[in-house]
């Protein structure tokens, strides 16, 4: 062979080998890190949102210091206060009046003074009471004013005060040192009591009439997931006296029988007059109630990441996401709340906030049958828990700490207790595939922004979400998980639930959640309208002998608060919306529709002596005039005195005119829970999710999501593999990167 030919072949071979090596090296090379791009939005109003901001630890400390030095009474730290002491129960931000805020935000008016609301217990007074003070201006307080009478029409009686953590400790100490020793044989032989193997859970409310502070305390094995380990013993403690030494046991319940006190229980046991039901001692991990996985880790579950970084921004308490902006905060009592919610720069809601979470239980045991938990009294915000990256929220979500001051004179922090993230919901927000006339595909990924917190109030964990969609809709949603509360199974217990373990009755109960939604649609002044459908019969114009049944639109303006109050199980118009005084391009009143998703159980009968305290739960929706003197649908004082409620929502509805007024929607959602074996070890969120949607209804001239940058469209005549035609075709290049997962940390077990 000619030498020149040999050389050419050799060069070609070397070139081929080099090309193959390059390809192999390229394929083997790990993708580079994801390159974050700053969000496109600019935020000229980020400082203004601070008018709604939670108090900082420094501000909380300043308020405490001011109160300790300016009230002229001795204040004991609430973490160690006796009922007969004076103490600061809680401090939170005092949100200014709406008119002041709007003058500041919209009218160039002065910034409202920054103030705090302090709740004080005055037990060391001739007439013990609860007093609320507004303290300001912050950060250097110089004044305080008593607002109790202004808010509630009088002083708040001391027996209504929410129970401090230290009072529960004092009750536990009373049981251990004074009550249980009166039945030594029963406690040792039946309960196998060693001073630390029993856990106590409170019932509430506490008695049957105003002034009572008499509480059933239910005993469980002190193991992991103790809520489903009842031992059959329940003790009624009268702790109404401000002198702890005068507390007494009023009744005792064991395995279906009632006893006057622990002494009578011991006597009956010694005489063989008790039907003893020994409960098998559970290991420390709870055995069946343990949440430790029963299977080893395997392939990693799917993770979410943002190839070019977050497309939202969080500065202080303000969030921007595409066309959305809003401020967020955390009330120590009611939890997550949003303010000044705007879409495309226009305010659609002034406030959206959680108001209350109510649980009403049934049982044939006294603690269960008397329980109506009003979680705001315990503190939904106070019990907001640190979030676990990758489970409670996406691993790469933005996390924020929550600072609060309650049951102590020192503020505390719940680390990473609020998360914000954009979530690809894995389905199209809208789409169409056309195979008629023209051939094309058009769609938009349903990617939404989520703001989340999770409150663990006793046995239940509530996952609170506010979700912002690209079409201008807002969703408020709550998912319930945690442990089901239980009673000791005896007698006719199966009338009140299902047996879920050997001695455990999962007790029937309802969940009811109330929200405040202050919509401002096209301005502050709105009306309430209802659209629905009805069938009408008509003759076919082209064939008069034939009849057609056709649906038609029905319209009604709801003029009064009574017309706008829809009872829980009543039929409600399917389109209820806040209507603006302006119209869209097509001549329709611009509006935002309220759409409720709920499968609530029945409400407590109105004949009940305590029903007025929870009368908000009568209604799936009630729309009232907005009033500064009606800021919340309930009160933290209603739990311990529901018989004379400090706030009765039913009084808000007094048939006032609601056309062209500043209106508030009070929305109640809920579900009936009959615990079953699959609630062991604990309850899942699937099927236990309820909430509401706020949806544009003729608010825009067309769907605003058509302007989203995420839209996909291509025709049969286009090269849909080209990036400039179809952004999905670019994913191998734009999304093939390594996200930066920060090291896992968790702070949930600190400062307990």
Automatic annotation (TrEMBL):
GO biological process: amine metabolic process
Catalytic residues (positions): 375, 460
Modification comment: Topaquinone (TPQ) is generated by copper-dependent autoxidation of a specific tyrosyl residue.
Molecular function terms from GO: copper ion binding; primary methylamine oxidase activity; quinone binding
Every Copper amine oxidase catalytic domain range: 304-706
Keyword field: Copper, Metal-binding, Oxidoreductase, Signal, TPQ
UniProt-listed Enzyme Commission number(s): 1.4.3.-
A GO cellular component annotation in the UniProt record: plasma membrane
Gene3D superfamilies to which the protein is assigned, alphabetical: 3.10.450.40, Copper amine oxidase, catalytic domain (2.70.98.20)
Cofactor comment: Contains 1 topaquinone per subunit.
Co-factor(s): Cu cation
Pfam families in the cross-refs: Cu_amine_oxid, Cu_amine_oxidN2, Cu_amine_oxidN3
Copper amine oxidase N3-terminal domain ranges (all copies): 161-256
PANTHER family according to UniProt: COPPER AMINE OXIDASE, RETINA-SPECIFIC COPPER AMINE OXIDASE
Protein name: Amine oxidase
Naturally occurring in which organism (per UniProt): Smutsornis africanus
Taxonomic classification: Eukaryota, Metazoa, Chordata, Craniata, Vertebrata
């Amino acid at each position: 062979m000619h030498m020149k030919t040999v050389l050419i072949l050799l060069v070609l071979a070397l070139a081929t080998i080099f090309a193959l090596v390059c390809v192999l090296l390229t394929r083997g090379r790990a993708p580079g890190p994801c390159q974050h791009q700053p969000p496109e939005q600019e935020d000229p109003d980020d400082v203004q949102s601070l008018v709604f901001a939670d108090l900082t630890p420094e501000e909380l400390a300043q308020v405490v210091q001011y109160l300790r030095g300016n009230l002229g009474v001795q204040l004991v730290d609430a973490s160690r206060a006796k009922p007969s002491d004076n103490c600061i129960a809680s401090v939170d931000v005092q949100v200014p009046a709406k008119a002041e805020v709007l003058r500041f935000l919209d009218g160039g008016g002065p910034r409202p003074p920054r103030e705090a609301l302090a709740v004080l217990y005055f037990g060391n007074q001739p007439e013990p009471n609860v007093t609320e003070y507004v303290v300001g201006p912050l950060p250097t307080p110089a004044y305080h004013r008593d607002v109790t009478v202004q808010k509630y029409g009088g002083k708040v009686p001391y027996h209504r005060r929410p129970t401090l953590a230290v009072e529960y400790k004092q009750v536990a100490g009373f049981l251990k040192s004074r009550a249980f020793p009166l039945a030594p044989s029963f406690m040792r032989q039946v309960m196998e009591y060693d001073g630390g193997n029993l856990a106590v859970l409170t019932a509430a409310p506490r008695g049957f009439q105003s002034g009572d502070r008499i509480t059933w305390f239910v005993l469980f094995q002190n193991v992991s997931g103790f809520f489903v380990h009842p031992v059959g013993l329940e003790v009624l403690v009268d702790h109404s006296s401000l002198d702890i030494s005068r507390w007494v046991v009023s009744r005792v319940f064991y395995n279906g029988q009632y006893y006057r006190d622990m002494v009578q229980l011991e006597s009956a046991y010694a005489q063989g007059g008790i039907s003893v039901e020994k409960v098998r001692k559970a290991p420390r991990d709870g055995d069946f109630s343990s949440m430790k996985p029963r299977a080893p880790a395997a392939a990693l579950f799917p993770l979410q990441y943002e190839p070019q970084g977050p497309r939202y921004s969080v500065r202080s308490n303000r969030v921007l996401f595409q066309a959305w902006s809003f401020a967020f905060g955390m009330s120590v009592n009611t939890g997550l709340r949003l303010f000044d919610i705007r879409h495309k720069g226009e305010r659609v809601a002034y406030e959206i906030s959680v108001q209350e979470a109510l649980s009403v239980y049934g049982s044939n045991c006294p603690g269960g049958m008397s329980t109506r938990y009003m979680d705001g009294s315990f503190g939904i915000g106070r019990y907001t828990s640190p979030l676990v990256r990758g489970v409670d929220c996406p691993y790469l979500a933005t996390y924020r700490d929550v600072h609060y001051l309650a049951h102590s004179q020192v503020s505390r922090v719940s680390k990473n207790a609020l998360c914000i993230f954009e979530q690809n919901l894995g389905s199209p927000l809208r789409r169409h595939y056309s195979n008629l006339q023209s051939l094309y595909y058009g769609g938009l990924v349903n990617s939404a922004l989520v703001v989340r917190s999770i409150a663990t109030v006793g046995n239940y964990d509530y996952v609170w979400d506010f979700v912002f969609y690209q079409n201008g809709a807002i969703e408020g949603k709550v998912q319930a998980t945690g442990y089901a509360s239980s009673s000791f199974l005896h007698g006719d217990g199966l009338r009140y639930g299902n047996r879920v373990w050997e001695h455990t009755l999962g007790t029937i109960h309802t969940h009811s959640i109330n929200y405040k939604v202050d919509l401002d649609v096209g301005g502050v002044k709105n009306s309430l309208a209802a659209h629905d459908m009805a069938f009408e019969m008509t003759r076919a114009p082209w064939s008069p002998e034939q009849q057609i049944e056709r649906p038609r639109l029905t319209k009604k303006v709801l003029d009064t608060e009574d017309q706008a109050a829809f009872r829980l199980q009543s039929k409600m118009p399917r389109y209820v919306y806040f209507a603006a005084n302006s119209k869209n391009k097509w001549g329709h009143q611009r509006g935002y529709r309220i759409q409720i998703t709920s499968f609530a159980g029945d409400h407590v009968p109105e004949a009940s002596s305590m029903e007025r305290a929870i009368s908000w739960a009568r209604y799936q929706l009630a729309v009232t005039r907005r009033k500064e003197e009606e800021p919340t649908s309930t009160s933290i004082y209603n739990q311990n005195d529901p018989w004379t409620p400090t706030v009765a929502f039913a009084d808000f509805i007094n048939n006032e005119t609601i056309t062209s007024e500043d209106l508030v929607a009070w929305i109640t959602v809920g579900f009936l829970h009959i615990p079953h074996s699959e609630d062991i070890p604990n309850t899942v969120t699937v099927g236990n999710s309820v909430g509401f949607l706020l949806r544009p209804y003729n608010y825009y001239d067309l769907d605003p999501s058509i302007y989203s940058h995420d839209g996909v469209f291509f025709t049969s005549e286009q090269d849909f593999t080209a990036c400039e035609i179809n952004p999905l075709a670019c994913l191998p290049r734009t999304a093939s990167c390594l996200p930066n997962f920060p090291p896992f940390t968790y702070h949930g077990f600190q400062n307990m």
